Amino acid sequence: MSGPKLTAEHVARVHRVMADAGPAPGVQQQTDADYAGWVERILGDHPTPGAPIQLFAYGSLIWKPEIEHRAERPAVARGWHRSFCLRMHRFRGTLDQPGLMMALDRGGQCRGVVLELPPEDPVAQLDRLFRREFTVKPINSMPRWLTVTTAGGPVRALGFVMNRASPYYAGRLAPAEVARVLARACGHWGTGAEYLLNTVTQLEGRGIRDAGLWRLQALVAEEIERIAPRA
């Protein structure tokens, strides 16, 4: 990989302290009843009722799971790939300067990890997980059971995939355009650059090299050096 490598120092140059402006005007939020319905639907389709839920993690669920898990193992989801295709007007972006976050989009393959959740109280686990992963209607990150490949064979794991019917679906953007957005966007959760750096760092620590992300982090570093040069 040529060019600079994205670092915490780059992230610090573009970080800004932002207040949470809340949901955008007119945006419908998922309700308690909506979340309960999603939990019921997913548990009703559980491939092995009563067994611990296997959760496929490919991005922030690896470095900020916010849900207890008792085991982790490498896995590959075929037919899906990481893509910065989810437009964000909150969290890591604003209405004035929207950000981008990763989602699983169709095509290719994605190397990640399977997290095994505790067997106790799957309803509470999924409710907490779903409130983390999606907030607005129509849903952006759709929960569904995926077949992933592990060293021990195929596993049915819960994953979150991009809903292409969502108005926040950005489609397939050129890497340079994604880098331009990530180098500038910031919300009350932080910057897009920080999100990318955390993901790349955690994947690298697990021996996972996503060629697209490694090229992207170099592009983001170059863009930050252009728009926010070191004093």
Short description:
This protein is an alpha+beta fold and 231 residues long.
Protein model, in words:
With 231 residues, the protein is of the alpha+beta class. It has one domain: Gamma-glutamyl cyclotransferase-like (Hypothetical upf0131 protein ytfp), CATH 3.10.490. A five-stranded antiparallel beta sheet has the order 2-4-3-6-7. A two-stranded antiparallel sheet has the order 1-5. Strand 8 and strand 9 form a beta hairpin. Helix 2 crosses helix 4, helix 5 crosses helix 7 and helix 6 packs antiparallel against helix 7.
Would you spell out the secondary-structure blueprint of this structure?
Layout: H1 8-14, E1 28-29, H2 32-44, E2 54-57, H3 60-63, E3 71-88, E4 99-116, H4 122-133, E5 136-137, E6 141-150, E7 153-162, H5 175-184, E8 186-187, E9 190-191, H6 192-205, H7 211-227
CATH-defined topology: Hypothetical upf0131 protein ytfp
* Strand count: 9
The end-to-end distance, rounded to whole angstroms, is 26 Å
Give the low-pLDDT segments: none
Tell me which CATH architecture applies here. Roll
By CATH's scheme, which homologous superfamily applies?
Answer: Gamma-glutamyl cyclotransferase-like
Computed over alpha carbons, the radius of gyration is 18 Å
Structural class: alpha+beta
Range of strand content = 25-35%
Number of structural units classed as domains: 1
How are the strands ordered across the major sheet? 2-4-3-6-7
Mean pLDDT across all residues, rounded? Answer: 95
Q: What's the CATH C level?
A: Alpha Beta
Helix-strand sequence: HEHEHEEHEEEHEEHH
How many helix segments? 7
Sheet with the most strands, sense and barrel status:
5 strands, antiparallel
Net shape = globular
Helix content: 25-40%
